[in-house]
């Protein structure tokens, strides 16, 4: 019986990869995905997860997860082994009220969008607290934030925050002073309506997932000038997104239970996934991250992180 179960598992995994590889695409490039492992399982014990909404990797490939339902942050190594965790419900420096996003890409700092505490928390790579960033009531209204939905650090050390209260993005300099906001209701065609997550690419473009009237990814330059939108004919409820070093844009769509891939110019490449609990299927995927040739998907309502190996095929 054990051997039979293994055979069924192998056949399922093979079919998942095949379907993903042959999914209809607009671009010449296709993606072959190989399922590797699951990190986490439903629960509140160390290493378990409850509704994870944010994920990030550092240059060494360590994985940081905003374990939203458990109000904590967990750090795993490249093989999924738990290295450290902090959290619990509360207001102190190592407590959270609904951490929804995390950024650990520079390998030194870990920034957490602590949504209901209305702050950004900064830790070192070992999850030791450094400081809390709150909105400054003494600055003009356009430079304040309410409930932070997402956070991203640029290669220049500037911090970008999605302010879900005011449907805009705030930019903080390396001294953590607010210097700019953009995407407000008066931003013309670049106005955000329901911004979710943000990612600042290495070429200084700012990508924001926006549900609003139609799902799309909004693209701005480093100074907040609107450039274009991506995926309005494909996406329904885009959430987490990531721009890989090769320029491909990965977007998690929570309504369609799929991850979509676009080229840097916005051309659709491929989508993969389906609704369900099996490997390769998702239940409200909330975030994505890419490191080397690995894709990480925060599979929120399945309470796990799925890990895939990526191969681009032309």
Keywords:
single chain, 314 residues, mainly beta, 4-stranded antiparallel β-sheet, 1 helix, globular
Number of strands: 24
Strand content: 35-45%
Average residue pLDDT: 91
How much helix is in the residues? under 10%
Secondary-structure element order, N to C: HEEEEEEEEEEEEEEEEEEEEEEEE
How would you explain this protein's 3D organization?
The protein is 7% helix and 44% strand. The protein contains 1 helix and 24 strands. The chain has one helix spanning 2-22, and strands at residues 30-39, 54-57, 63-67, 72-76, 82-87, 99-103, 109-114, 119-124, 129-134, 148-153, 159-163, 168-172, 178-182, 195-200, 206-210, 216-220, 226-230, 238-243, 249-253, 258-262, 268-272, 285-291, 294-299, 304-313. The protein has a 4-stranded antiparallel β-sheet. A 4-stranded antiparallel β-sheet has the order 2-3-4-5, with no helix packed on it. The longest helix is centred in the first third of the chain and has 21 residues, at 2-22. The model is unreliable at 1-24 (pLDDT under 50).
State the gist of this model:
This protein is mainly beta.
Give the helix/strand layout.
Blueprint (H helix, E strand, L loop, with lengths): L1 H21 L7 E10 L14 E4 L5 E5 L4 E5 L5 E6 L11 E5 L5 E6 L4 E6 L4 E6 L13 E6 L5 E5 L4 E5 L5 E5 L12 E6 L5 E5 L5 E5 L5 E5 L7 E6 L5 E5 L4 E5 L5 E5 L12 E7 L2 E6 L4 E10 L1
Antiparallel strand pairs: 1-24, 2-3, 3-4, 4-5, 6-7, 7-8, 8-9, 10-11, 11-12, 12-13, 14-15, 15-16, 16-17, 18-19, 19-20, 20-21, 22-23, 23-24
């Amino acid at each position: 019986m054990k051997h039979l179960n293994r055979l069924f598992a192998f056949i399922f995994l093979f079919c998942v990869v095949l379907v993903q590889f042959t999914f209809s695409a607009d671009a010449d490039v296709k993606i072959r995905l190989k399922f590797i492992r699951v990190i986490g399982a439903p629960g509140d014990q160390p290493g378990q997860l409850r509704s994870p909404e944010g994920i990030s990797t550092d240059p060494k490939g360590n994985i940081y997860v905003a374990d939203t339902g458990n109000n904590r942050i967990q750090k795993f190594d490249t093989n999924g082994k738990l290295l450290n965790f902090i959290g619990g419900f509360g207001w102190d420096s190592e407590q959270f009220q609904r951490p929804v996003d995390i950024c650990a890409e520079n390998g030194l700092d870990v920034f957490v969008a602590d949504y209901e505490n209305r702050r950004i928390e900064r830790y070192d790579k070992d999850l030791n607290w450094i400081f809390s960033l709150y909105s400054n009531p003494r600055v003009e209204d356009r430079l304040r934030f309410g409930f932070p939905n997402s956070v991203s650090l640029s290669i220049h050390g500037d911090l970008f925050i999605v302010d879900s209260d005011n449907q805009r993005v705030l930019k903080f300099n390396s001294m953590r002073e607010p210097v700019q906001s953009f995407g407000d209701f008066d931003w013309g065609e670049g106005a955000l309506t329901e911004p979710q997550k943000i990612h600042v690419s290495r070429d200084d473009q700012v990508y924001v997932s926006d549900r609003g009237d139609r799902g799309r990814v909004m693209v701005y330059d480093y100074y907040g000038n609107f450039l274009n939108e991506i995926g309005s004919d494909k996406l329904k409820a885009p959430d987490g997104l990531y721009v890989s070093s090769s320029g491909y844009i990965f977007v998690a769509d929570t309504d369609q239970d799929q991850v979509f891939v676009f080229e840097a110019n916005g051309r659709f490449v491929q989508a993969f996934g389906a609704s369900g609990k099996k490997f390769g299927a998702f239940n409200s995927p909330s975030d994505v991250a890419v490191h080397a040739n690995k894709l990480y998907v925060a599979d929120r309502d399945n309470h796990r992180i799925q890990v895939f190996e990526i191969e681009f095929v032309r």
